[in-house]
Amino acid sequence: MAPAEVVTWAVRSGQLPLTSMASAENEVCAVRKVACPSQTWRPQKVQCGLSGAGQVPFTNMAAGVEGRGGVWMGSRADGPRTSGHVTGKMAVFPWHSRNRNYKAEFASCRLEAVPLEFGDYHPLKPITVTESKTKKVNRKGSTSSTSSSSSSSMVDPLSSVLDGTDPLSMFAATADPVALAAATDSSRRKRDRDDNSVVGSDFEPWANKRGEILARYTTTEKLSINLFMGSEKGKAGTATLAMSEKVRTRLEELDDFEEGSQKELLNLTQQDYVNRIEELNQSLKDAWASDQKVKALKIVIQCSKLLSDTSVIQFYPSKFVLITDILDTFGKLVYERIFSMCVDNRSVLPDHFSPENANDTAKETCLNWFFKIASIRELIPRFYVEASILKCNKFLSKTGISECLPRLTCMIRGIGDPLVSVYARAYLCRALLTEMMERCKKLGNNALLLNSVMSAFRAEFIATRSMDFIGMIKECDESGFPKHLLFRSLGLNLALADPPESDRLQILNEAWKVITKLKNPQDYINCAEVWVEYTCKHFTKREVNTVLADVIKHMTPDRAFEDSYPQLQLIIKKVIAHFHDFSVLFSVEKFLPFLDMFQKESVRVEVCKCIMDAFIKHQQEPTKDPVILNALLHVCKTMHDSVNALTLEDEKRMLSHLINGFIKMVSFGRDFEQQLSFYVESRSMFCNLEPVLVQLIHSVNRLAMETRKLMKGNHSRKTAAFVRACVAYCFITIPSLAGIFTRLNLYLHSGQVALANQCLSQADAFFKAAISLIPEVPKMINIDGKMRPSESFLLEFLCNFFSTLLIVPDHPEHGVLFLVRELLNVIQDYTWEDNSDEKIRIYTCVLHLLSAMSQETYLYHIDKVDSNDSLYGGDSKFLAENNKLCETVMAQILEHLKTLAKDEALKRQSSLGLSFFNSILAHGDLRNNKLNQLSVNLWHLAQRHGCADTRTMVKTLEYIKKQSKQPDMTHLTELALRLPLQTRT
Amino acid sequence: MGTAVDIKIKRANKVYHAGEVLSGVVVISSKDSVQHQGVSLTMEGTVNLQLSAKSVGVFEAFYNSVKPIQIIHSTIEMVKPGKFPSGKTEIPFEFPLRAKGNKALYETYHGVFVNIQYTLRCDMRRSLLAKDLTKTCEFIVHSAPQKGKFTPSPVDFTITPETLQNVKERALLPKFLLRGHLNSTNCVITQPLTGELVVESSEAAIRSVELQLVRVETCGCAEGYARDATEIQNIQIADGDVCRGLSVPIYMVFPRLFTCPTLETTNFKVEFEVNIVVLLHPDHLITENFPLKLCRI
Question: CB-based contact (8 Å) between B6 and chain A?
Answer without folding.
Answer: no
